[in-house]
Amino acid sequence: xxxxxxxxxxxxxxxxxxxxxxxxxxxxxxxxxxxxxxxxxxxxxxxxxxxxxxxxxxxxxxxxxxxxxxxxxxxxxxxxxxxxxxxxxxxxxxxxxxxxxxxxxxxxxxxxxxxxxxxxxxxxxxxxxxxxxxxxxxxxxxxxxxxxxxxxxxxxxxxxxxxxxxxxxxxxxxxxxxxxxxxxxxxxxxxxxxxxxxxxxxxxxxxxxxxxxxxxxxxxxxxxxxxxxxxxxxxxxxxxxxxxxxx
Length: 247
What we know:
By secondary structure, this protein is α/β, with parallel strands linked by helices. Helix content is 38%, strand content 11%. Strands 3-2-1-4-5 form a 5-stranded mixed β-sheet, with helices on both faces. Strand 2 and strand 3 (123-127) form a beta hairpin. Helix 1 (13-24) packs across helix 3 (40-57), helix 2 (29-36) crosses helix 3 (40-57) and helix 3 (40-57) packs across helix 7 (217-230).
């Protein structure tokens, strides 16, 4: 354990292994605590450390070829951070956090998530402060190789993709166009259905972890990204997880 993420903690290694295994199965902290006969606060500290280590050590490959790009909005406030609530200029909520209607921002407790999905490949997900061209440009440039073909909807933030060095094709959701066959081969290749499907997977993944704060959301996103891209589940995922945790 010396020199690893597990060093300096009172829990024995077998408990850490069991916790990591259950976390990889997307079990909630409360259920992990029940399974391992630990306090919820101890499990929270353990899983936070493990997720943060994965977020620090895991570096996804750059996407290339055909990539779908889309944005989503996840409701997340400042749970456990009263100073952040005060800085936001509002009273603490006494009811379930719902976020503001429409496109979200960090200030509206509805942080935007930008996602890039390579067809038959990996995904990359980032929480951003807002959905503006100047915000997403450096993220797309850092995650997608130049010359790749990027499919999006017609949201204006993507209008300059060709100027950034990409081939850009769009579908017009406003006109109820969800896939288009541009070359007439009978295959409707222009769509963002794969990216939208990843949002469904992400929301299902986050559902057991009720009340994730904005501060913690990025490490949950990176852990989801790691699990998705590893394409392993259960015991077969544990070896990959250990490799990332041990750096």
